[in-house]
Protein backbone atom coordinates (compact mmCIF):
# COMPACT_ATOMS: atom_id res chain seq x y z
CA UNK A 1 0.00 0.00 0.00
CA UNK A 2 1.29 3.44 -0.86
CA UNK A 3 1.12 6.50 1.34
CA UNK A 4 -0.89 8.64 -1.05
CA UNK A 5 -3.76 10.68 0.32
CA UNK A 6 -7.15 9.00 0.04
CA UNK A 7 -10.69 10.22 0.59
CA UNK A 8 -12.40 8.21 3.38
CA UNK A 9 -15.73 6.64 2.42
CA UNK A 10 -17.80 5.49 5.40
CA UNK A 11 -21.11 4.61 3.76
CA UNK A 12 -22.61 2.76 0.80
CA UNK A 13 -24.43 5.97 -0.17
CA UNK A 14 -22.72 6.74 -3.48
CA UNK A 15 -23.92 10.35 -3.34
CA UNK A 16 -21.18 10.97 -0.75
CA UNK A 17 -18.39 9.28 -2.72
CA UNK A 18 -15.61 11.02 -4.64
CA UNK A 19 -14.87 9.48 -8.03
CA UNK A 20 -12.12 11.89 -9.05
CA UNK A 21 -9.51 10.84 -6.47
CA UNK A 22 -8.14 7.80 -4.65
CA UNK A 23 -10.42 6.55 -1.88
CA UNK A 24 -10.37 4.20 1.08
CA UNK A 25 -13.53 2.38 2.09
CA UNK A 26 -13.92 2.08 5.86
CA UNK A 27 -15.28 -1.45 5.44
CA UNK A 28 -16.79 -3.90 3.01
CA UNK A 29 -20.28 -2.61 3.90
CA UNK A 30 -19.47 0.53 1.92
CA UNK A 31 -19.29 -1.29 -1.39
CA UNK A 32 -22.22 -3.54 -2.08
CA UNK A 33 -21.86 -6.41 -4.52
CA UNK A 34 -24.78 -5.33 -6.71
CA UNK A 35 -22.96 -2.00 -7.30
CA UNK A 36 -19.62 -3.67 -8.09
CA UNK A 37 -19.65 -2.14 -11.57
CA UNK A 38 -19.45 1.29 -9.90
CA UNK A 39 -16.62 0.78 -7.40
CA UNK A 40 -14.62 -1.82 -9.31
CA UNK A 41 -12.96 0.76 -11.56
CA UNK A 42 -12.15 3.21 -8.77
CA UNK A 43 -8.68 3.78 -7.33
CA UNK A 44 -9.82 2.29 -4.03
CA UNK A 45 -8.76 0.13 -1.15
CA UNK A 46 -10.67 -1.22 1.85
CA UNK A 47 -9.34 -0.45 5.32
CA UNK A 48 -8.23 -3.44 7.36
CA UNK A 49 -10.54 -4.20 10.27
CA UNK A 50 -9.40 -2.46 13.44
CA UNK A 51 -8.74 -4.50 16.54
CA UNK A 52 -8.88 -7.92 14.94
CA UNK A 53 -5.16 -8.46 14.42
CA UNK A 54 -3.09 -10.76 16.63
CA UNK A 55 -1.43 -7.86 18.46
CA UNK A 56 -4.84 -6.56 19.57
CA UNK A 57 -5.87 -10.02 20.72
CA UNK A 58 -2.62 -10.32 22.65
CA UNK A 59 -3.28 -6.92 24.18
CA UNK A 60 -6.74 -8.04 25.28
CA UNK A 61 -5.18 -11.11 26.91
CA UNK A 62 -2.65 -8.92 28.73
CA UNK A 63 -5.46 -6.66 29.97
CA UNK A 64 -7.22 -9.69 31.47
CA UNK A 65 -3.99 -10.83 33.10
CA UNK A 66 -3.38 -7.37 34.56
CA UNK A 67 -6.94 -7.27 35.89
CA UNK A 68 -6.51 -10.65 37.58
CA UNK A 69 -3.21 -9.57 39.15
CA UNK A 70 -4.78 -6.32 40.36
CA UNK A 71 -7.69 -8.24 41.89
CA UNK A 72 -5.23 -10.45 43.78
CA UNK A 73 -3.25 -7.42 44.96
CA UNK A 74 -6.42 -5.75 46.26
CA UNK A 75 -7.35 -8.92 48.12
CA UNK A 76 -3.86 -9.07 49.68
CA UNK A 77 -3.97 -5.39 50.67
CA UNK A 78 -7.37 -5.81 52.31
CA UNK A 79 -6.06 -8.77 54.31
CA UNK A 80 -2.99 -6.79 55.33
CA UNK A 81 -5.21 -3.90 56.46
CA UNK A 82 -7.30 -6.29 58.58
CA UNK A 83 -4.11 -7.65 60.18
CA UNK A 84 -2.91 -4.13 60.92
CA UNK A 85 -6.25 -3.26 62.55
CA UNK A 86 -5.96 -6.35 64.80
CA UNK A 87 -2.42 -5.42 65.75
CA UNK A 88 -3.54 -1.94 66.82
CA UNK A 89 -6.21 -3.28 69.19
Word description of this protein:
It contains 2 helices and 3 strands. It is mostly helical and 89 residues long. The chain folds into 2 domains: 1-47, no CATH class; 52-89. The protein has a 3-stranded parallel beta sheet with strand order 1-2-3, with no helix packed on it. Strand 2 (23-25), helix 1 and strand 3 form a beta-alpha-beta unit. The model has no long low-confidence stretch (mean pLDDT 86).
Helix content: 40-55%
Arithmetic mean pLDDT: 86
Query: Which class best fits the helix and strand makeup?
Result: mainly alpha
Biggest sheet strand line-up:
1-2-3
Rough outline: rod-shaped
Number of distinct helices: 2
Largest sheet: 3 strands, parallel
Task: Briefly say what this structure is.
The protein is mainly alpha-helical and 89 residues long. 44% of the residues lie in helices and 10% in strands. It contains 2 helices and 3 strands; from the N terminus they run E-E-H-E-H.
Amino acid sequence: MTNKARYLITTADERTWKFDRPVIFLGEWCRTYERKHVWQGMDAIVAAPYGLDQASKDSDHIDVQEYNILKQEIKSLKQEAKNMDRDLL
